[in-house]
Amino acid sequence: MTVGEHLEELRTCLIRASAGLAVTVLLGFLVARPVVHLIEQPLRRALGTYYSSRALETFDAWTPRAAGGPPLPYSRSEVVDAVERRGLSFDLREIHADRLARVLSGSAPAVSGTAAFDSDSLVPVILWQPLSRDPRVSITTLSAQEAFGIYVKAALLVGVVLASPWIFYQLWSFVASGLYAHERRWVWTFLPVSVGLFLAGVLLAFFFVFDFVLDYLLAFNAWLGLDPDPRISEWMSFVLILPIGFGIGFQLPLVMLFLERIGVFDAETYLKQWRAAVLAIAIVSAVLTPADPYSLLFLAGPLCLLYFGGIVLCRRGAAPRLQPATKASQ
Prior knowledge:
69% of the residues lie in helices and 5% in strands.
């Protein structure tokens, strides 16, 4: 094929992949609402853990204002049980119990205009509420149109996942158009594996990496003394970038094996260049993930293992590597 024919084939494959993606995105609009609630769950869990830990730290650090003052109304074991098993959150406040009792009984306390505030007689109280109703755990939007953007992003995420087999089919079809006939069979062998690796990367990011990354980022907020107030649109952008980056990165061993099978590289070359490969993996991981070290490490670590796994596949693959002499016979 000439360069122009390759470009025409690429244009055709891209149009077909885009059309398939458009169809699956339309299907994604039908399930976007429950997907949004599903995507919220890791962030809600992380925020609940963060604020529960902060509340327990406040509980442990509390001391009476005056020597011999009233103690806290609950023991630490009761508070831990309520937080960890009952799904409750709490605020530690202080009140003047005698004045509250007089207000509730209908007799207002006598207040002098020159009286000083009596802080030593404050009594600690703990206000409970379900963690799901804690406003600090709720995820906010700052504009009326932001919710629609979130809905569209959720549909796009569903569309990318559903369309991934078709998109990879078109990409591998473009690759196959530039190969000899005897080399094309590797494309159709690798296609289902490629889709499986992409989905494995997406699932690893969503069900494993998110929790660790969120815990790290919220712990960093606590170290700086800042309370997070996340917006769901920013979280959705994070959700879109990280799983897709993992899915693309997990294609590494398959690409290595494919290049070895068509004679571009061999296992010895991969092994000799492992230092450069690790550096390249670190750079690519930094590009494909948000700006935090946990995301980079969680992608770079598996990719390094997949790189050396690709070397093992190249050495122990069942089929021999194709030789240039075979091409001439075609």
